[in-house]
């Protein structure tokens, strides 16, 4: 995909939240500017969808960790009472 700067060869499932978010911002910007071809637009869209899913995966994982930490904190508070 020559000329599509936002596309990255790094597998999405290996990206950190920050890397996926930053690349997603680039993809959105590129789509807003209009890619030169339909094929490039589709490639950008597909990469953007994968990046958004990766970000959501990270956020859901963080939410589960917070809920587990809160549950652990309330369990230890209950035991102290």
Q: Which features would summarize this protein structure in a list?
A:
81 residues, mainly alpha, Helix Hairpins, rod-shaped
Describe this structure in words.
This protein has 81 residues and is mostly helical. It has a single domain, classed as Helix Hairpins (Orthogonal Bundle). It has two helices and no strands. The protein has helices at residues 17-33, 38-80. The radius of gyration is 19 Å and the shape is rod-shaped. The termini are far apart.
Mind sketching the topology for me?
Blueprint: H1 17-33, H2 38-80
Helix pairs in contact: 1-2
What's the mean pLDDT score?
88
Number of helices: 2
Given as residue ranges, the uncertain stretches (5+ residues, pLDDT < 50) are: none
The tally of beta strands, per DSSP, is 0
Shape: rod-shaped
CATH domain topology:
Helix Hairpins
Q: Number of folding domains? A: 1
Largest sheet: none
For the record, the CATH architecture stands as Orthogonal Bundle
Rg over CA atoms: 19 Å
How many angstroms does the end-to-end distance come to? 63 Å
Helix content: over 70%
Fraction of residues in β-strands: under 5%
Helix/strand-derived category reads mainly alpha
Topology as a string of helices (H) and strands (E): HH
Q: Mind telling me the CATH class? A: Mainly Alpha
